[in-house]
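user: can you give me the structure for this one chain? tokens are fine.
assistant: on it. calling the predictor now.
[tool input]
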Amino acid sequence: MRFGIFLPPFAEFAEPRRVVSLARQAEESGWDGLFLWDHMLAAPGMAVADPWVVMAAVAVTTTRIRLGALVTPLPRRRPWVLSRQMATLDQLSDGRLIGGIGLGDDGWTEFSSFGEAADPVIRGQMLDEALELLQRFLGGEAVSYRGRHYTVNAPPLLPRARQDPLPIWGAVRFPNRKPLARIARLDGCFPIFAASGGVPPPAPADITALHAALMDLGARSDIDIAVRAALSVEDPAAVPETVGALQASGVTWLLEAFPPGAPPDRVMSVVSNGPPAAP
């Protein structure tokens, strides 16, 4: 199992230098990855940084940790532009990028505020088309495509990413199983479980069921399953057992989650203490 930080670049963490400093500390403290939320808006009045610009700064000041946006809502991105950003960042980081894609939602009016499609059915159609285009561009193909939402006739986009293929994880709000057929063709799954207040660890039984469903849909046996949890607020004595149970259920990445507006001193303290210990 690998351990990462899952951070919204909001409020005080909308300052890129603060995130860069945090990333350096995460690498020194033994964490394996830093993953940023990808949003346009947050709560009214809360600052939001662009995660791709921030990750570029992190890439040139770290050497080991993996980077990624969890998750980028493809329906509000042009897949050819995103493919250039991903390939460029993967080159800049020497092959440390993990792509994260999802449907997104309009909870903070991030679609409707800008006149974009808010209907989840329409966004689902756009996601499927955009994902195919993204993968073809990242694969170095010339692309001729005519779909319901995108029309493309383009030569290969170069340079390609350092990784071949560049890993992509897909998000799902579990137990919704409709997106799993799409995710089963990807390199990883990022399940989001309903939670009030903090982010408790998911039930291992849910991960086992998720993994079995992905296998039934033809997913590769080593597909990554990355889950978020605020283990830093759990009983420390129970954490090793929780980590062990999640690992046994199929979790390959455990991400320490922080809420929007988390105090920077607390976040830095958790990061400095290093990842939780497995049993």
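assistant: here you go. The mean pLDDT is 95. The chain has one domain: 2-272.
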